[in-house]
Amino acid sequence: METYGFCNLSCVPLRAAASHQSEMVSQLLFGETFEILGNEGAWLAVQCSHDDYQGFIDERQCLLISDKDYQHLQQAHNQYAGTVNNYATDQADNRIEIFPAANMRGFRNGKLVLGATTFSYDHPLQKPLPNAAGAEVIKSARLYLNAPYLWGGRTTAGIDCSGLTQNSFNQNGIALQRDASMQATQGKTIHLIWEAKCGDLAFFDNTDGQITHVGIITGEGTIIHASGFVRIDEIDHQGIFDSKTRKYTHNLRTIKRLIDEG
Asked: Does domain 134-257 have CATH number 3.90.1720.10?
């Protein structure tokens, strides 16, 4: 068996265990690659190349690729679809929807050849911006406004809180880990809410003190986050305030800055 794979579908569920009934912990998006760690029957234990996250995928929902092709993809500059309603096609003319955060590498003149399989893409791709500003991260996050909350989701069809932050930063060339508790270990701590700037990450904990939620501060006394759906709410030193219910919904734990202020 090959030791590497390529996501050749729009999105593929990454599960906690080798079963379709198992919890979906994340998703692979078209163009992303992974290392195969082992297998359990028809399930592959994989580690995602872009964030080292591990889980299981159905072996029928991917394309196995050679070590040479994998290394080529890893060395190529990454690009993102950048907008919604983008599509690629394979050599059988199957249409594949490309979501905004799809980490696409190796396309040249609109084509990508992996062994006997060729993919084509007609629209211009967006490259991650060097030294992206907080406003660019917020712009990326706004692509997901009103998308429904989906545990483990990473697309405009459904996304969770840390998927939203990871996608928004990754699309601007800043690598984030997958889960909120992991992301909270990154960046510089900002101690006071009034020192927070556009693009800072705000983390929230539960009654046991565990970090369970994350969002992106807009710099206008509000935060964009995924809770029920991707939305913009007010935030202060206590936490996130829902103006409709007039209640606090999340307790602020810490703020982190990952964007270089120059």
From this structure: yes
